[in-house]
Amino acid sequence: MDSKTYGIIGGVVFVIGLISFFMGSSKSAERNYTQAETLFQHREYQGAIEKYQKAIKASKRLGAKTKHIHKDFPTLAKYKIVLCYDKLAATKNDDRYYSKAILLIDKTVAETVDYKHRENLYYLWAQILHKKKEYVQAELKYSYFISEFPNSALVVEALYYNGIINKELSLKIESEVSIKRINDSQESFQRIIDEFPTSKYRSEAEAYIRQLIVAEDNRSDNIDSETDDQRMYDTALKALDAGDIYEAYQLFIGIIDEYPRSQLISSVYERVGDMFYNAGNTVNARHYYENAILTNTDNDRNHLLKNRYNRTLLKPKPPVPLDDKKAMNELFTKAILLRKKGEYLEAAKIFETFAKTKK
């Protein structure tokens, strides 16, 4: 063969080799990523990190294709490396891995425009700061996450941890900042109750709100000699006097849930019965009055409690026009109690009535 033929053959071989090199890059990225995933599942995090890094390097070669794995494959692999650092910090009890994770998150968030990656990275950022006990920074990241990713499935968890952090920080400072943190904590827990009524965090959120209400009240009164149930009861009465019906209801229910053997339990049942009766819900009122009678240890109160119970058997009075301030307050209480029970449609109808009559 002449030199021209050899040149053509050489060119073909070169092109084939170049194609093979490119194909090899794609396969190399996918192979290393798959191996990294396997190592991660087996909790071999250090080895997984090395494989993820090799996969990233291979994916950046000219001609490598990784979009079938993810459109932003390098960020995905870096996110997995952050997860590995997080796991290593926990298993080895070494905060240096948390620091590495934060540095990589900070860099990666700035590089990616993928919404889901940003969502996952910011939430992990808040979690890691929380684990490092950098509470102020963690609270800021949780708050940012809640505002920037309102439709995320992780919002309810972010609200929960945001509430926890603000609650803990509020106990460490004696100033207006503390009051603000108490309010922020209550707001986070209340959002869980209102927006995520079926969440596993709801019951804890309700309990924490009660604790915060009592803590705030005790801080102003500086009462240390009372028992927890007595503090809750006294705070509930103050809330009633101030017209904070829902706050009082939460505290009374908290005593029933947390201190069923309290000496105050009969009075608590009576108070809740009154609240339902005033809201026009005689069925629930009767239930609580009955419990008040069953838990009563004071014979002098029997007559009073039985009268309260019997009045729930009478035909209810006709509703008072909405321009009556007292009637509006009672109707609002009824809406709140319906929402508390999960009867959202009925509560919404009442709130809608308020919206139409509000001046």
The main pleated sheet reads as: none
- Total number of beta strands: 0
Strand composition percent: under 5%
Helix content: over 70%
Sequence stretches where pLDDT stays below 50 over 5 or more residues: 4-24
Radius of gyration: 31 Å
Shape descriptor reads elongated
Structure description:
There is one protein chain. This protein has 359 residues and is mainly α. The protein has 16 helices and no strands. The protein has helices spanning 3-41, 45-59, 73-92, 96-111, 115-131, 135-148, 155-170, 176-195, 202-221, 228-241, 245-258, 265-278, 282-294, 302-311, 325-340, 344-357. Helix 10 packs antiparallel against helix 11. The longest helix is centred in the N-terminal third of the chain and has 39 residues, at 3-41. The chain is elongated and about 85 Å long. Mean pLDDT is 79; it is low at 4-24.
List its salient traits.
359 residues, mainly alpha, 16 helices
Please summarize what this structure is.
The protein is mainly alpha-helical. It has 16 helices and no strands.
